[in-house]
Design goal:
The chain has about 725 residues and is of the alpha+beta class. Helix content is about 50%, strand content about 15%. It is built from 28 helices and 20 strands. The longest helix has about 35 residues.
Length: about 725
């Protein structure tokens, strides 16, 4: 551990003397403030801020960052107020220290917590001055390096947090050296045995690989020399945690991973990178599809390099990265490279400008959003790609799996919200309930009393909570609806015998239930509603003589087919709101006013067709399952029909057609246009109308349009 004087001398290599003095003053201030405090290792506390400043000095950070590093634990640990720092060291440094303290106070117990408000605060701190993050990262790095002094449980918690939060942040900021060190230290603390095992294997492999490695290295160097290309070639080793993740994630064996020989060629300028690429490609054959030009298209964190993989001797894969010194610096230190202290006359070249631009972009984003939402969205997607973070209108953050829809969100908020949701607003605009959500969006669910889950939701929800709740609700709903339909069907038949369910004596009902091996009347009614049992047959049994078991035989025997149909048919009235056990056939799309019949399909309830539907005629065998229906005079709702319109080709006619439909107060679900020849088109429309009267008004309006040749309502 260097003393402050040795440290100050080092700083002299890139800072002005008065700046070095300010850093030194900050050190002495911290030393006094932490007087009497020691680290877990027994050293005086001030050794820690000094080490943090040292890490930042390695990155050539400016003097204000170094001062903040010296003072970073003062507010938190010694109770000295921020104001005192303002008067001592100025607003900027005090702000930095305050920002770091705020970050320190957040302990990220879980990813979800880290994501929530904590992350937002962090982003806000970052927006004010990204150096807050850099100081915090250096602080964390020193703590990780000295983790050994802590107890097992605390060590693991810090290691986990480092792997989950800080390493990804460092990576996001392009600070590769830092993120790999975080990963290796975190790995070692979390999984000491595994880390040791891999370290040993790497050491052994190194010996075996040495000869071939040197041969390839020499060959590469010779080729560069022959071509007159300046550049240094270095061998690259994968870091332990990287190897571990590859073994786990890609299920590769240790040897498969180690069998790759990796090099980096560092040259003077971008132009040389491409010439070196040509030289190595002529030396060994490149792997097709593995070449990446991150110089032309840098990664989002500013990373630049050429990547290629070659077939070496005996087919050994050789991975090569080619970049300039500048890109190398940027690849290692990322955003910190931007803060490198520069004398006034130093020219800012392209790469630094790009980093600056990236940072500016982040800050602008922040400003434009007015809060940190958009910013979070951008950073977070990189940090935790499998989750999305959605805001409630009140600003609460909900964590959902990637691909979650507004319906998933509604159920995550509350089961009742999910069950009664009818629409949603995403960022204050109406949006489809099925659209996958993106991080940072604000979602508002619109509910309506009496609304209920739509079975179609099951095709797009992805959370277990939404799925099981929808299923549960539908099952329940279906049961009660089938009971009520069954009751109506049965009562209708009983009415034709001038009686009703209420008039049937209780013992008789119980007898029939017993015959059917059922306990409750509800089960029997539900069975009728679902189409498993015919109302007529059940009615006959209920009315049969009081002789016990008067009507024997299996309940499904249709021998008792209504032969004595002298009884009046009392049609069942359809209201349009029957729900899940009554549906409208897609083949003929009946609407109120059409003559209709109901077809009871076992287990599925009743499907309503037009009386003239061809599908029904084809099913002639099941006459007894067909019921005569009427429309209730109070029928409500919208019903789907399909129209086919032949048009003469002319400008704007489709738009006119669509307007015509809307003007007639009907809504279009789907429109498709088929051009037949140069002169005519055929338009198919799926439209929702109230009834036949509404439909005829609509047709009249369309027919009046210039260029409409023919309109047909489609059936089957
Ligand atoms: Mn600290």
């Amino acid at each position: 551990m260097s003393s402050i004087e040795a440290f100050a001398e080092r700083l002299g290599s890139y800072l002005e003397p008065e700046q070095v003095n300010l850093v030194r003053r900050a050190y002495f201030y911290a030393e006094q403030a932490h007087d009497g405090q020691t680290r877990r290792s027994g050293e005086p506390y001030v050794t820690h801020p000094l080490a943090v400043a040292d890490i930042l000095a390695d990155m050539h950070m400016d003097h204000q960052s170094l001062m903040a590093a010296m003072l970073h634990d003062v507010i938190e640990d010694t109770g000295i107020p921020k104001d005192a720092l303002v008067s001592q060291f100025g607003e900027t440094v005090a702000e930095l220290v305050d920002g770091v303290s705020k970050l320190t106070q957040m302990t990220f117990e879980t990813k979800a917590e880290a994501q929530a408000e904590n992350f937002q605060k962090m982003a806000l701190a970052m927006a004010r001055d990204i150096r807050v993050i850099l100081v915090k990262l250096a602080d964390r790095l020193h703590n990780m390096r000295t983790l050994g002094a802590l107890s097992g449980e605390k060590r693991r918690r810090i290691a986990k947090e480092t792997l989950e939060i800080y390493a990804p942040i460092a990576n996001r900021l392009g600070m590769h050296s830092l993120s790999t060190e975080f990963e290796d230290l975190g790995f070692k603390a979390m999984y000491p045995m595994r880390s040791q095992l891999i370290a040993r294997a790497v050491r052994n492999a190194r010996g075996n690989r040495k000869e071939l490695l040197n041969r390839i290295l020499e060959t590469l160097q010779n080729r560069l020399r022959e071509e007159g290309l300046p550049g240094r070639v270095v061998g690259r080793e994968k870091h332990l945690y990287g190897i571990y993740q590859k073994m786990r994630g890609k299920r590769k064996s240790f040897n498969e991973i180690m069998d790759v020989y990796a090099f980096r060629i560092i040259v003077d300028k971008p132009d040389t990178c491409y010439r070196v690429l040509g030289a190595v490609h002529s030396l060994y054959k490149p792997f097709p599809g593995r070449f990446k030009d991150y110089i032309a298209i840098p990664k989002s964190n500013g990373y630049q390099s050429l990547h290629t993989t070659l077939f070496g001797l005996h087919g050994v894969p050789i991975e090569i990265q080619i970049r300039t010194e500048e890109m190398e610096e940027l690849a290692n230190n990322g955003i910190a490279a931007h803060w490198v202290y520069k004398s006034k006359d130093e020219i800012i070249n392209g790469n630094h400008a790009r980093t600056r631009q990236w940072l500016k972009g982040v800050l602008e984003l922040q400003e434009r959003a007015g809060n940190s939402l958009e910013f979070i969205e951008n950073v977070k997607i990189d940090l935790f790609p499998d989750e999305v973070y959605i805001f409630t209108p009140k600003g609460r953050i909900m964590e959902l799996p990637k691909g979650a829809t507004p319906v998933d969100f509604a159920y995550a908020v509350h089961t009742d919200v999910g069950n009664s949701c009818i629409a949603c607003r995403v960022n204050r605009r109406l949006a489809p309930l099925s659209e996958p959500l993106q991080s940072g969006q604000t979602v508002e669910i619109i509910t309506a009393p009496g609304a209920r889950p739509n079975p179609a939701w099951l095709s797009f929800v992805i959370t277990g909570k939404a799925r099981s709740n929808i299923r549960h609700f539908l099952k329940h709903q279906r049961h009660s609806e089938s009971i009520s339909l069954g009751e109506r069907l049965l009562d209708k038949v009983l009415a034709s015998f001038d009686t009703s369910l209420e008039d049937i004596p209780e013992p008789r009902i119980r007898q029939v239930l017993e015959d059917c091996k059922m306990e409750h009347l509800e089960d029997l009614l539900s069975d009728i509603g679902l189409g498993n049992r015919m109302a007529y047959v059940v009615a006959r049994r209920l009315l049969a003589s009081d002789a016990p078991g008067g009507s024997t035989g299996s309940p499904r025997t249709d021998a008792e087919k209504p032969s004595d149909q002298s009884v009046r048919e009392l049609p069942l009235a359809i209201r349009g709101t029957e729900g899940l056990v009554v549906s409208f056939a897609r083949c003929c799309n009946p609407i109120p006013g059409d003559p209709i019949v109901g077809y009871l399909s076992s287990g599925k309830g009743m499907v309503i067709h037009q009386e003239t539907c061809n599908n029904l005629a084809d099913r002639g065998h099941a006459d007894e399952k067909i019921l005569h229906l009427t429309w209730d005079k109070d029928v409500t709702g919208e019903f789907t029909i399909e129209l086919r319109v032949e048009l003469e080709h002319q400008r704007g006619i489709i738009a006119q057609l669509a307007t015509g439909v809307t003007m007639a107060d009907a809504s279009i679900d789907k429109i498709s246009v088929d051009e037949r020849d140069g002169r005519t088109s055929v338009v198919q429309l799926v439209i929702r109308v109230r009834d036949r009267l509404h439909l005829s008004q609509l047709i009249k309006r369309i027919r009046a349009l210039n260029g409409v040749l023919r309109i047909t309502r489609l059936k089957n």
